Amino acid sequence: MDSLIPFTTSGALVDSVDRKMLVILRDGRKLHGVLRSYDQFANLVLEDTYELIYHGNLCAEKHVGLFLIRGENVVLLGEIDLDREDDVPLRRVEYKALEPYHLKEIEDKKKHEEVKEKVLFEQEGFSREGGEGDSY
User: What would the pLDDT profile of 44-82 be if each residue is shown by its tens digit?
Assistant: First the structure.
């Protein structure tokens, strides 16, 4: 009877070990690599990891090697279908060619978040992130 109850904890990852996975982190980074290990907190170990960046229909990747990811930073984790991986309609370019666009997008997003935080604090009465009243 218990075997029919689906995993709702990090134990659900047991079938994903040794498979190629895509991980999206809270800071927006997109990584793909082979899941080698995990623990009860969903901390992940990825081997042969690449960081992906995108701009329009262009894609670039940088090898970052062995990667340890704290579970609380994972937004999305999914298996990559190896049969369809190359069907993605993105043109691969060198990482250095896309890096300036990627860094500008990060800076623009940071400025947008600062403006949003200021409006929420001054006009709506929300606390600043990490400031007084932002604890639980």
Answer: 999 999 999 999 899 999 999 999 999 999 999 999 988
> Does residue 107 contact residue 99 with C-beta atoms inside 8 Å?
no
Query: What 3-state class would DSSP assign to 49?
Result: strand
Q: What is the pTM of this model?
A: 0.78
CA distances from 64 to 49, 87, 95, 128 (A): 6, 24, 12, 33
Tell me the CB-side half-sphere exposure of residue 12, using CA atoms within 13 A. 11
Find the largest Cα–Cα distance for the chain. Answer: 55
| Alpha carbon distance 46, 62 (integer Å) | 14
